[in-house]
Amino acid sequence: MKIMGKTVIAAALLITLISAGAWAQSAYPNRHVTILLGYPAGTPNDTVARVVAAKLSDRIGQPVIVENKPGAATSLAAAAVLKAAPDGYTLYLSGIANTINPSVNKMTFDFIKDFAPITMVDEVPVVLVVPASGPSTLKELIAQAKQNPGKVSFGSSGAGTATHLFGELFARETGTKLTHVPYRGSSQAVVDLLASRIQVMFSPAGTALPHIKAGKLKALATSAKHRLEALPDVPTFGEAGIQKLDFSLWVGLSAPAGTPAPVVAYLNKEVGAVLALPDVKAKLLPQLIYPTPSTSEAFGAFVRQDTERWAEVVKAAGIKANN
After folding, report:
1. What residues are paired with 36 via a beta bridge?
2. Taking the model in full, what pTM does it have?
3. Distance between CA 270 and CA 264 in Å, rounded?
4. Going by C-beta distance under 8 Å and a sequence separation of 6 or more, which residues neighbour residue 291?
5. Phi, psi at residue 291, to the nearest 5°?
6. What is the DSSP letter of 320?
7. Average pLDDT, the chain
8. 262: helix, coil or strand?
9. Read out DSSP for 163-178?
10. DSSP assignment, residue 236?
11. pLDDT at 16 over 90
């Protein structure tokens, strides 16, 4: 029995040494890495992906390619990533759409179970904006909405999108009834807001900033935890007494479930180092895109909590899922 025990131990040790040698010979990464995202070129998320990819390539010594695959509320890109081997060479730029989609769309995958969280990448605060001729304070807007139930309309980038749910959550927390006007993307919604054809919009802060600075839109509140340096006179929802409107348009980096833990840890470390670079911050912060690297565990916990949060909002608002 002793001889057999020693034999088993020796065999296990040999397997370990062989595995370690194989890992050393094929150390990750030894070829290019691809990051897929479900947004078109030129969008804020595309900008983030390309800034991170360029610097990550420098750090890991391999090309990092960004591939745009928009469609189906980012699900086309996610599904494409899941078809790739879980080896760290095909990554997914995930975002808030992935925690909203399960409640509003029929899904072919489970984002929580089928993806391995690597790190949070950034957060973009949201601003509540109205036309230049609209209310001057959040208090005035809420009073107007309460006096005219259903007559204050808010635009979004589409039914079941983040900007739609932000409006529903705002209405619930303020005891108002707003009318939702969905658009195919946010650009036409902004046009109609500027023309006062709709009265409210929940916009990414960086997108609305030029219009605010030009005096064409008024910012009444932001979803940030603290006042934004670019909009120092605009209070947060928390300061205005509304505590549950701390949402943001977040972006993260994910990989197919089953990606080796050492690869996930390596990417977490390297992406975190990229997001801390002064020149990366210099490119993102002026657009009000805030780098927020995290541990993979913290990112995974956030994804679960965010999924539950939006499921509850969808249910409370009576939004029907799209089949």
Report:
1. 67, 92
2. 0.88
3. 10
4. 121, 122, 275, 276, 280, 281, 284
5. -60, 130
6. P
7. 91
8. helix
9. HHHHHHHHHHHHT---
10. B
11. no
